[in-house]
Amino acid sequence: MQIIFASVSYRRVVADLRVTSNDIYRRLSVDDFNKNTTIEKLKSQAPSVEINVVLSQSENDDIENEELNIWEGSTIKLEEPLMAQMNYCFYLPDEYLESYLLQVSDIQDVNTIWNIIKRDFIRLYRYELWGGNTDDRSISISKIKNRFDFQFLDAIRDVGRDMFTGHDKLLRDVLEFFIDYDIRKDKDKSEKETNDEIKVLHDEFVQKAEPLMDSMMKRLSEGKKVMLNYSDSTGANFDKTYPDFSGNLTESDLLAILKLIVKDKIGIEIPATHNGLGYNNLLYISLLLAKMQAESDEDFMKINTILFPILAIEEPEAHLHPSMQYKFLKFLRQNRDNHNIKQVFITTHSTQITSAVKLDDLICMYKESGKIRIAYPGRCFDDTEEGKGSKHFVQRFLDATNADMFFASKIVFVEGIAEELLLPVLAKYKGFNFADHHIVVINERGRYFEHFLKLFDSNNKYSICKKVAVITDRDPVRKTKGSKVFSTCWPYEYDVDEETEYKINADEAIKKYKDHPNIRIFRNNTIYGKTLEYDLMFYNTTSDILIIDSLANINELQQLINIGKFNDTAKVIINKCKNKTIKERLLPALEKIDWHVDIKYKSLLATRYLSSLGKGENAFELRLKLEDNLESEKPLYLNIPPYINEAIEWIIQ
């Protein structure tokens, strides 16, 4: 069985039911309550903490009778998948409620009430544990508690003291389990045969150990007399008693002297204490998993077998290189699949870890309007073919860079490398820094944003509700009626011929999300726009701020900028263009379209600029130039396209 749901009421979420320190249960304090509780609620009732944990039968998991017996009275669903519930409540007993309400009745400050609870009432609180989904708290879960093993590794941990020698409990427990492991795991032997064979080995050890102890005692015999004479002199010997030494050498004694070492391929040995923290954390976790395997082994632990081993790790990236994080996750997954552990919980801010797990395994916690919310990315997609396709696409798309979308406060989806590189710089021209607002720009490498928007659609109860802007190109296309294939066209070639069919990008999506509470789509001007690079030049024709050294037609562009209008001189320059397609299409189309001459000039320059750029390779150079310009003493003015302006202002709000 596995934990599928945990609800926590009247306080913030905690990681587990039993918070331990040095194996001692930690008592909750005032700071464990929900401090957002209103003063009215605090004055009407004493705060309490209630945690309800629902466990469900895992897929392909056969529940044995022993497991069923320990859940007696706690089951809430008897047909498969079986479900059981455990409950915890930390509360002020009824006999103290009247006193509490009296003390807080006239208080007008919420902090004063918390101080009263801390001073006068927190010590009176009790906790109760019970099973089932009823208010009957008499259903004991003592059998269940003893079958759980919750191992928690926090982010800042010194693992050395627990594992370097056999004297340390963790290593000793693991060694004692794995001694004679080959015999105990031989399924062809009966239990009696296994025990008999281990007994023979034990007896052989005892026979060999006795001479060693006899030899040691013989070597101590004379020195012992001198040493113990002091006890006689001090009066410790009386009533015919006197001290002596005795002992047996056991397997455990020998295991205790073993030390964990690291050995390289040429035989050099160094103590594990000389390793780095990250390496030793991996060693520690491997030993911990071995211990959990031992405690879950019914043949070894008998009636004390752990049925529900759970491993919780806080921020493993604190000690592991990114490449090791992938390997570590693979290692944990194998242990889970081999049933050495039932469940693994990892809290992380690592994009490497996030991108390496399945969407179904992700649980996202985020804050919205001051409240903690929980999202389940794997459940954001419906069970239709479209939903399954979107889920598969998002899963394949995730990598360490794109997984940033789960951690950012706001997201801007863009179609290509140019938008990804330039948008943060354009925001700076408006006085905004995306990093300060925890905004991430995600390059979806095409028009696939509808797949990702399912993750953030606030109309879906499982989604991650955060503000999402989509910036997409208008990119007009056309085809002759009856033809199957659309081809790209320039804005001034759009909708000029009745025999041609035209289409622009994202019309339906813009309508769909027009009034959406947290998602908005931004696109270029519906008449003059095409792409980001096209629009940048369209709105900046009087400056060479966009002219970079790697442009294919830099001289031609500078000449056109210097002319400053659509006239015969500009036409002559275009007619000298080596690109035959541009020359034959550009001027005739601009001559034909009924636009203002200034718009024609802007379109002419934007066309030549876009056709002079490679597919994104110039974006990095342009980004550097724009950043340098912004930091210069007399920066050139940059006119940001309106749709980019709107997107930046909306996402910043």
From TrEMBL:
It comes from the Bacteria. Residues 406-475 form the OLD protein-like TOPRIM domain. Pfam families: AAA_15, OLD-like_TOPRIM. CDD domains: TOPRIM_OLD (cd01026). Residues 25-353 form the Endonuclease GajA/Old nuclease/RecF-like AAA domain. This is AAA family ATPase. It comes from Phocaeicola vulgatus (Bacteroides vulgatus).
